[in-house]
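Comment thread on ticket #2218

A.B. wrote:
> Attaching the input chain for the structure job we discussed in standup.
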Amino acid sequence: MMKQQVLQQLSRHQPPFLSISLDTSRTSGVTERATELRWRALVEKLRAPWLPAPVREQIAETVLRPAPRSGPSGRYVVASADGVALDLVLPEPPVRDEIVVGPAPHLLPLIRATRQRPSYVLVVVDRAGADIDFVVGVGAEAWHRTITGSNDELHKVKSGLLSQRRVQARAEDSWDRNAAEVAKEVDAIVREYRPALVLVAGDQTAVAALQGAIGEGTRTLVRRLPTGTRADGASAAALDAAVKVEQDRYEAARRALVLDRFNSAEARQTAAVQGVEDVVTALGRSQVEHLLLHDDPLSTFAVWAGPGPEHISSSAQGLQAAGVTDPVRVRADAAIVWSAVAGGGEVTLLADTDRTLTNGIGAVLRWSDPSTSRDRVPSMPGHGEAFEDG
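C.D. wrote:
> Ran it. Output below, let me know if you need it in another format.
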């Protein structure tokens, strides 16, 4: 699901929010009863007297709804006093089962899932057509389309008699026309769903014809896979592994570009900050264009937040000075990510092998001025204490 769609659904609800992440895997030896028991253990710790009983029932029904397919999966649900705001099936279990309550929805489980699975279109072609599979966002069902070309002169013959050369020419023309039909469908999918990658596999001649027929916008997304055919008995496991390799490459390249921007801005002492306190200050001034975060699900850092995503500060006094009457102490990761995303910023989760940042956090800024922090180590008063959901 695209960021804009998530924000649109959440914008219809007022805080406080209830953010739920639950492992709902349906694997050998794991029953729906086990999922229900995990949910009950989780909800016993919930302290949300503001939540109406009918909404509690709606949440439980949503969380425990069976996953649409067997195998590893998770459920991500955000709710308010008005009901369920967001319900998504994650392609992998969350790093832990949790309920987070606060003025900000806890978006990190969703962002983790997005990082693991960049959206893609998979096109496996032969000279007769193609099988197209695409998943265009976390929580979206995988779609499948089979394209059968309308041109059936498919078999090329050895050079020889004039009649044979005519058949050969008709066959090559049929391949090109079939490739054009497949390309038209792929271009339409890319325009509508905007995937990160278009992965192509199959018959070498058909792949070449497809690459020549697709539009320029689609061509920039194409990565050719070393395995995969439409033939019966083709290895699905090998194809899945090849897809995962390209997803990992895409994510590594995306992180590298963001880090290059951050490093360049930091070297020029301009539009880059790091550390919880400086990033929070920049968020409160709507400066953050891109948030960089070393993800730590066990982090105990806390900040202060108000009713809107722009209401964020490293101290209660900072929000009170801005007119927020009842600041709430909340998990830093939840409030920071929500403030960045709601403010139109992007979020990139860094790998363990990427450069270190103060407190594991940094930001590329839209703008800076003389009052913007310059590489100072934040004192972070009140941070680092254990935070408990309430």
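A.B. wrote:
> Thanks. Noting for the ticket: The two ends are 29 Å apart (CA to CA).
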